[in-house]
TrEMBL record:
This is RN213 ligase. The lineage of its organism: Eukaryota, Metazoa, Chordata, Craniata, Vertebrata. It comes from the Eukaryota. InterPro entries: RNF213. It comes from Caloenas nicobarica (Nicobar pigeon). GO terms for biological process: negative regulation of non-canonical Wnt signaling pathway; sprouting angiogenesis; ubiquitin-dependent protein catabolic process. PANTHER family: E3 UBIQUITIN-PROTEIN LIGASE RNF213, RZ-TYPE DOMAIN-CONTAINING PROTEIN.
Length: 80
């Protein structure tokens, strides 16, 4: 949710990193973001769950990768 919210606001996601147990927004805002970005017009709860699970795994791997660390790659992969 935090990544999707910042993406919609046009923030630089390269400089953002999720902090465990941090809470932002309301459950209604979260659901609205998920519905907006999941890519399915009328998703079931299972489809939303699969979307959030997949997105979470991808973002966790991205944050853990040295190749996605802006301090390491500096400006060599800008916008990647």
């Amino acid at each position: 949710f935090q990544y999707l919210k910042r993406f919609d606001q046009g923030c630089n996601l390269d400089a953002f990193s999720y902090e465990e147990h941090s809470v932002e927004g309301s459950p209604a805002e979260c659901l609205q973001q998920l519905l907006l970005h999941c890519g399915i017009t009328d998703p079931s709860w299972a489809e939303l769950r699969n979307f959030t699970w997949f997105l979470n795994v991808q973002l966790r791997d991205c944050e853990a990768s040295v190749f996605c660390n802006p301090d390491f790659v500096q400006d060599t992969l800008k916008g990647f």
